[in-house]
Amino acid sequence: MNSAMKAFDLTGKTALVTGASRGLGLQIAEALADQGARLVISSRKAEDLETAAKHLKDRGAKVEWIAADNSKDQDIARLTDEAIAKLGKVDILVNNAGASWGAPAEDHPVDAWDKVMNLNIRSLFVLSQAIAKKSMIPNKYGRVINLASIAGLRGNRGPTGTIAYNTSKGAVVNFTRGLAGEWGKYGITVNALAPGFFPSKMTHGTIKALGVEKLTEGVPLRRIGDDEDLKGAALLFASDAGKHITGQILAVDGGLTAV
Questions:
Q1: pTM of the full structure
Q2: Among 16, 80, 178, 217, which has the minimal tally of Cβ within 10 Å of its Cβ?
Q3: In which family does this protein belong, per the annotation (predicted)?
Q4: Is-contact 42 116, C-beta < 8 A?
């Protein structure tokens, strides 16, 4: 293996990936496992995790799962302790669990706002803090990868009805930068992926309603993301290939935010 390829090798590394039973989280879990990392995947539903774990094991992954609701502090505490017990340490934390809610800003329910903000940003802080204190800081090593969104890089365009989601992802952007500044002294890098439009359970309704052609208007590459498009960027942030990169937000959006 040449030195460039070796930099992406994750043999001997461990990773906790939240929201990993499907979609972008499962895509990232595949990428980390393919490069040799041992995994714990997490989401709310045990049956979904069982299916995802079998899928990963069929690909040759070493993976275990923990069902947890990251909107609950007690579940985050349990997830932290159980993940470290299963893996011995957590080298890589992928904060992917999240939620959205559709409603015009003037009619957006406050309880729905709180639900989105709680899961999309508060839980990232609570879990990152717990994993850092119990594993990364003592080991003087860590890779934190947060899932932001291009929705957090700009204001809403027209009546999107996603004010809470967009606000939460904007918070993830600056959370990433702030944490990178504080934890660099511990050998921890903190970066974020900002996907554009990808097929997922969350976006299924929008794709069905508008169609891919409409959604790719203004996208230089004239396409939405697929099941492979986050893998390279995730591996860069997770591996030694990105050891001098921290506090960065990488848009993976077919060039939409560049024009």
A1: 0.96
A2: 217
A3: Belongs to the short-chain dehydrogenases/reductases (SDR) family.
A4: no
Nearest to 255 by CA among 211, 194, 205: 194
d(CA 135, CA 84): 8
Assign 3-class secondary structure to 3-21: HHHHCCCCCCCEEEEECCC
| Domains in the chain: boundaries | 3-252
Contact between 100 and 162 under an 8 Å Cβ cutoff? The reply is yes
Domain spanning 3-252, CATH architecture: 3-Layer(aba) Sandwich (3.40)
Each residue of 226-240: pLDDT tens digit? 999 999 999 999 999
> Per residue, what are the HEC states of the chain?
CCHHHHCCCCCCCEEEEECCCCHHHHHHHHHHHHCCCEEEEEECCHHHHHHHHHHHHHCCCEEEEEECCCCCHHHHHHHHHHHHHHHCCCCEEEECCCCCCCECHHHCCHHHHHHHHHHHHHHHHHHHHHHHHHHHHHHCCEEEEEECCHHHCCCCCCCCCEHHHHHHHHHHHHHHHHHHHHHHHHCEEEEEEEECCCCCCCCHHHHHHHCHHHHCCCCCCCCCCCCCCCHHHHHHHHCHHHCCCCCCEEEECCCHHHC
Residue positions annotated with a catalytic role: 165
